[in-house]
Amino acid sequence: MIRFRLDPRSGVPAYRQLVDQVRQAVRLGLLQPGDQLPPVREVVTQITINPNTVHRAYRDLESEGLVQGQQGRGTFVLAAPVPAAAPEQVAELHRELVAWVGKARAAGLDDEGIAALVALSVRPPGTSAGATRMAETGREEIAR
Amino acid sequence: MSTPAAAVETLGLGKRYGHAWALQDCSFRLPPGRIAGLVGPNGAGKSTLLRMLAGISTPSAGEMSVLGWPAGTQSTETLACIGYLDQDRPLYRGFRVSEMLRFGRELNPRWDDTRARRHLDDLAISPRSRIGRLSGGQQAQVALTMCLAKRPELLLLDEPVAALDPLARDDLMHILLQSVVDDGATVLLSSHAVADLATVCDYVIILSASRVQLAGDLDHVLASHRMLLGPAAAAPPVPADGAVVSSVTTGRQTTMIVRAGQLIAGQPASAQPPAGLPIADPAWEVVEPTLDEIVLAYLRHRPQDLPQRPGRWARGAAPVEAR
Amino acid sequence: MTWVAWRVQRPQILAALGAVAMLAVWLTATGLVTGHSPAWKYWTDGDVGLLYALPGLLGLALGAPLVAGEAGHRTQRLAWTQSIPRTRWLAFKLLMGGLVAAGLSAALTALLEWWTKVVSIAASTNSGGFSGVRIQPAAFDVTGIVVVGYTLFAFALGTALGAVIRRPGWAFALGIPVFAAGRLLVEDWWRPHLVGPASYASLTGIPSKAVWNGWLLNSGLVPAGRTSPVPGQTWQASPPASYYTCTNHARSMAADAHCAALAHVHYVMQFQPASHYWALQGAETAIFAGIAVLLLGVTVIAVRKWSS
Q: Least enclosed by CB within 10 Å: which of A49, B121, C61, C91?
């Protein structure tokens, strides 16, 4: 089961942090379909958070179709939003990326340059969705 | 009892000690099921407000209703629904912990002894211990346990985590939040440390200089305030129906917190239109302030600084010297 | 709530119980010793007088901290936010404290009944000692049911002062002079008239056995045929000058009586006879119980209005 963390200094709203952590866990395969999210009662014993905020995060995840609340039983992971890679595969990809970053540094790129290259590669050609989507969601929240 | 529209509602509530008003013209409406943070500096009237709501202090002016009951109703029924934690955490110092629990059991029909004993067990506080021998943190835990074991619908907690070490603070908050999940209680807790509240509260009441400066939904409060950074000489691009809450000038730069719309103390936050704050002036950088920054801005500002009519604030409203 | 009232007041109750127990030991010991060898101690009214203060101290010690004691650590804020109305909470505490005060004082007075008797028998062989005449203040004040009345008065006084000034120490300290003043006022100004006194008239001024065994209020020479001084005059008013001229030459009691008869005056002794003992005890107890009820009313009002 996932264990949440909260960074009060990040400036990101608490419920957003929970949503992101669940997404991340699903993406990394730490949460598999059928896994249960910790009940609200348990979350508030781990992190100092308003129970309503946890409810709200779970509702958001539910409306995204990532999880499903079952009356009286709890909230369960439905399916990964993107085909989840096997953990070994993820580890392999991570190793390759680390090697690539090393090469980029050796070539004289600074961190900003590396980030820009990564962002460019993640965004599918000809669209503005993808990598920018996350950032935009964040901004929408601010505007709300 | 049917669920009231507001867990707590006050209108023009005031308390006077001699000639000095400890709290004046206090109006707000706290919907049920919320965890509300009552923030303000020491002496702002936080404890006075909580004591009046708990029924141990008589208001000098105004009206209030608690869980749908009018003020000062001293029936068993009303008292049973309110859990009050005093700032001083009063306990009988000569009692053993188990005797303190028996005190609660004898005086409260809804007393949950199992819960009380479980809490104290989790905190490794022995029922045999004398209250007077416990540490300040343990006494605070016993006092909170006494509140929670009543299974109240409304918890009024005066500085529950003040003077606690981080571990005790964490334990106390978790026990509190767990009970809130179990009982669905409304909580009104005061603190002068805003950082404690940011992740816990979803409603905020800012008290300063014996008055309510702001009361509203945390989301609305955050959404309707902006921090503006710009040149000291320029007029700030504040929307016509907005107001400058505080403005600090350091050298050539002015930092101000502005507020959109009429999110005025006493107005229910839900009645407020979500503020758009369309500030489009290239000279000014617009940042979303944290709760900390908003609270500080209100504590700096004096009541007369807020304009009654739009337009008058335009230049140099509420200037505060940077320290 | 009974347990709560008992537990919160336990320190004071135990202290009062301890003090009364120690006193009981002392009374029993001195009573037994005096009864065995009367020459051991010569008891005077003053010795017994020390016991007058007991009901006051006992009542105040139980009453002063009853409400005011909560203010010290502000535990009233804890008590009044439990699920029990303030007045009910107070009623239980008052009942507990009042019953303890009444019980202890009743026990004390029962012991004093025996002790005053023993001690007075020992003293009666000497003149000027403690007479043990129950209608006279020295014994009246420490026997019968008035002791319970005084204790309840002091208890109610302590709670009222405590509820008003909210400091147990001050309430106790202020309570002592108020208690003493209340007791003296009633004893000196009210008790003599609670029941109509009796009179005994004689030409010689020698008291009868009834006067001897009663509580003498007034005595003096008044005109023959009257049982009290002429209106406008006091008991000390001088008889006609001819009476003194006559008694200056009188050499016997019979001659004195003759002089009085010639001057148309006689000695009158106004007194409360021993038979009025219970009537006076009842009336005075009722007075102090009444004052206690009024003071408890003050306590209730002060607690209801208490805004912290």
A: B121
